[in-house]
Amino acid sequence: STMASGQLFSRNTQALFYNYKQLPIQRMLDFDFLCGRDTPSVAGIINPGAEGFQKLFFGQEEIAIPVHSSIEAACSAHPTADVFINFASFRSAAASSMSALKQPTIKVVAIIAEGVPESDTKQLIAYAQTNNKVVIGPATVGGIQAGAFKIGDTAGTIDNIIQCKLYRPGSVGFVSKSGGMSNELYNTIARVTDGIYEGIAIGGDVFPGSTLSDHILRFNNIPQVKMMVVLGELGGRDEYSLVEALKQGKVHKPVVAWVSGTCARLFKSEVQFGHAGAKSGGELESAQAKNQALREAGAVVPTSYEALEGAIKETFDKLVEEGKITPVTEVTPPPIPEDLNSAIKSGKVRAPTHIISTISDDRGEEPCYAGVPMSTIVEKGFGVGDVISLLWFKRSLPRYCTQFIEICIMLCADHGPCVSGAHNTIVTARAGKDLVSSLVSGLLTIGPRFGGAIDDAARYFKDAYDRGLSPYEFVESMKKKGIRVPGIGHRIKRGDNRDKRVELLQQYAHTHFPSVKYMEYAVQVETYTLSKANNLVLNVDGAIGSLFLDLLAGSGMFSKQEIDEIVEIGYLNGLFVLARSIGLIGHTFDQKRLKQPLYRHPWEDVLYTK
Ligand code: Q5B
Questions:
Q1: Which atom of ligand 1 is nearest to the CA of 479?
Q2: What ipTM did this prediction achieve?
Q3: Which of 206, 316, 390, 415 could form an S-S bond across to 193 if both were Cys, CB 3.0 to 4.6 Å?
């Protein structure tokens, strides 16, 4: 059988890992690298309901380990993976372990969960026995074949694994109930022998999937194992099957054993230690009785736990003397590259950042806009204008400025369904597209003719005013260059039908701004252009462009260079983009609400010509 044949693992063993747990999987792969394995010991991950790949490190390289949504899918994708490492919770461990055992490709199932119902475990054990499979656990950390294969978190950190020389095989077979104590013993054994060949923690439940004697008898058939160490614990009768095996002469190699829990006698009442199975029951289940029985059956049993190390050493030294063990030649394992994050944390390395950002920070207790925490924004009753001034201009502007920004946003939020942007949004929404597509198709029309003339208006008005050009000189010089004056002209508005929005903005500025020199200059330009044609009014873009120059210059909050930079980069079209998004979103909802069909432009409205 699998159990009797001895070897469960080799340097080529691959496992399927149930439930995605980054840390134990990475530790298995780090162990593989330490041992110089060619292939990673985790062939696939089963993450119920999810599929794809998980990126993990194999040495310095990143590898993509396939993730499968079911045990069946994983087994058929990785037919050579014969170990199933089950990191399911105690609630689902039994069912998933059973379906793993039923897969023809799976030979060994290790169950990590603690608290699996005993009746379920008994079923697993029965199924495994009749189908020639091995269960390790439940309630175990797993096991390790030194230099070959490691289950999950067995043996702890890489540093501990290196200290215990588990990256290469020694001559000692070790089996214990406790996973925590197995770490301790890996250390002890490494100190006084040539190290572990294989170590298994069978787990602390009353009914372990495989027993101490199962593994001892298995080690007996592994030629590389020259001696065995057993660490039992009080409670249960498991140790007695080992006693039987020893008495029957089935074990041909020296066994050093200790059953811990001798202190239970010091308690007046029954004590339960950490494990479900570790409770002092009847006399036969006491550590003393079991140690005595093992001793009588021929195991080397020290007088105390402290003396265990000495007993292991003596047994090993004797085997060396007898020539039965030739201690292995030492190898130096390759260093495992440290993770960048931990190296940075410990101050060992520094790494350049890839992005620089100055306007907001989401790392602290609460997000900040330009250093102002959210709670302040809410408590002080800030508005959208304040948020814009923090995120765009990186400063808190005075109330009259933020209110001006808000007025711009409100006045430009929409201008009916017939403007270019709204039209595009409506057509897109009627083509069945989603909100974002409908919105951006409208936004994409914003530019030099429609809505996106604010920055250019600010640029040209500022340049002309600062250079002292008269409106006549300015407009005529633009005409010579063949450039339309940005901020001037409208499709609908006329000299005798002014844009109300422009009037409202002008009124607000007259009342609140310390100076409106740029706007007044724009009005003089308008007076001149209106003398040429009735539609060449100062439009909403021109009004905002010129008034924002007044805001920037008059507020005392910006240096000359900052104003130049704002105008050069072009912040101000952002006001129209932001504002009109409100309207375009509204138009999208409107069309959807009205269940409007696909728009097709009528033939009659097109001039077909050659
Ligand atoms: N002419 C806005 O033109 C419009 C001239 C000019 C000198 C000018 C045009 C223009 C500059 C860009 C600008 C923002 C394309 C407009 C907005 C938001 C909106 C929209 C809405 C909303 C309109 C007739 C004659 C021609 C031209 C001359 C025109 N503009 N000369 N400087 N600026 N302006 N855009 O009506 O001799 O016949 O050849 O480009 O500021 O987008 O509500 O719709 O909220 O949604 O198509 O308000 O002015 O006039 O092109 O037929 O020109 O005037 O050279 O002269 P039109 P055109 P000539 S606000």
A1: 7
A2: 0.97
A3: 316
